[in-house]
Amino acid sequence: MYVNNVLLMINYMRICLALFSILFFAAFAAAQTEVLAPQPVPFTYQGKLVAGSAMANGQYDFLFRVCTTNVGETCSDQLLISNVAVTNGIFTVDLAFPPDLFPADPAQSVFLEISVKLPTDLDFTLLSPRQPITHTPRALSALTADSAKALNCSACIGDTQITSISAGKVTGKVASASNADNAANATTAQYAVNAVDLTSNQGSIGGTKRFNDRVTLSGGAQVGTAGISSNGPIAVTGSGTFNGNGSGLINVPGTLKWNVSPATSLQLDPNNGYVLTNSTAATVTLPASPAVGDVVRVIEKGTGGFTLAMNSGQSILDWATTHMETTWTRQYTLNAYPDTANFVSIATSADGQRIAAVEYLNGLLYLSQNGGQTWTSPMLDSRNYTCVAASADGSKLIASVEGGHLFTSADWGGTWTERFADANRNWYSVAVSGDGTKFYAVDTQSVWTSTNGGVSWTAKKSMSNHVGYIAASSDGTKLVLAEHNGHVWTSSDSGATWIDRLSSTFNQWQSVASSADGSKLAAVDSPGFLWISSDSGATWTQKTSVGPSGANTSWASVSMSSDGMRIAASAVNSSPYPGVLTISYDGGTSWTPTGSGTSWTAVAFAGSGSRLSASMSNGASNNKLYTGPVQTITVVDTITGVKDSAVELVYIGSNKFAMVTNNNMTIPPHNY
What we know:
Shape: elongated
Helix content: under 10%
Distance between the termini: 75 Å
Radius of gyration: 48 Å
């Protein structure tokens, strides 16, 4: 038993003794009718000894005495305990004083006096004050214990001795309770007064009753005249009717509680109708965990309009889904310099980490070796650059200039060499094989080829003053050439011979692209369409629905990955027709528009298809080039409505809703 927690300080050797507790255990041979001196039975004393500022460790001698007062010479008997082990300040001793030193009367005080010394010291140091020993550890036998033991009571307590018993003192079954019908079955009853036997059907149950389980009503039964109240849901099964105004009634298929809300963010509940009165755009989200057959309705009467959003994994049949979608992220940005210059061509290595870009109209050539994070301009002279191309590893580069030279580099763009002695040629397009050994260039006179990295050149095809655009397969054997206001041609022998593929058209072609094997080709004209071929140009498919303005779309550039599955095409604004950057991740079957309404002047897919670069122009300043990764993400479609729009949906299971009715609801295109 713990009786003290007093810190005793002594000045001897800066030793401190802290009393934690005194434990006393007493046993008696037999109960006695008067106070006798029992046999000595020790009690345990534990303390804490501190030497200076540290806990004491080692052997110490202790002297204990029992006193009747806290001061003065009132002590009798003493115990000397030597060589007591002290560890981290803690020591424990058993004190075997005669029990007759401890009075049975708790009003009489008893104190313990303690002295301590090291075994090598001659004198003890007295600790002060003395410690009181409370009554509990010295409890003796009750003075009247024998009388209690001698008491023999059988049927000696009757009704006259029991006037009341606290309810908390009664447990178990109480048989024949005079005020409770069938009380033996009321195992957890909280209100036994006027209890009614619920083990059989009852005609009526009066008062206020609380039930923790199901209550079944049959026939014309009613529950109260003031209705039913509950802190939780009330489940009703079977037939019958509820009377009332339906306030708070939800999750009853076919029954709607209408709500009016001006909120801009709203979570819809099953089997509820909502009249929106919002003045700014609102987002309402379908129920997260509906049951089959649950219905929800939304009517927009405000001016803000609303978006009907779905939770992850949900879909609306024939309307909207949660699905995986591949998108391009504009991770890094390069500003044009001067800001009025337009980026007109971009080239990239197969991994997309090495990028070259050129500006037209007194612009610069830019290089990045880290995917567009940082850029350098190795040639500081301003030129009218028209095109740039790179080998698969990005080490071999070629750039063309209107009214100037061709420039080639074999060291990642560190140094550049002018090609062709005359500086007044109008070069408009260049291409390079994957290994960088074969270069191709087009001016208004001819298609030129080089098989030694641009050192020497050979004219392969006359251009008859047409501006032309060229692309090559990775090995450089398959070529595609588009003439502005002319035809599209292909070659399968590095330009030695050519086949007129679109001879019936005289379109204003702007750009062409080729897959690594030359089997998949793309071409764009302006104004006009995007064209796709999957048989090396033998046949072509006109993509009439890809551009935002149909035949009036002003396409500017097209590019594809090495496998031809990822294709990007850019168009510029041409009033009143908007520009766009559109991307296909499935070889041209479907397209994802981005940046609608912006003039996109150039685009380049990395050969791996993992990164994309694209440039934009706003027609005045702040012209930019964006680079970033192509990633597959989870996309949740949305449905939007304007004033007076309405929609009703029913849940059919498996995370699917079906559109029952809708008025003026639309699905906006994703714009990344």
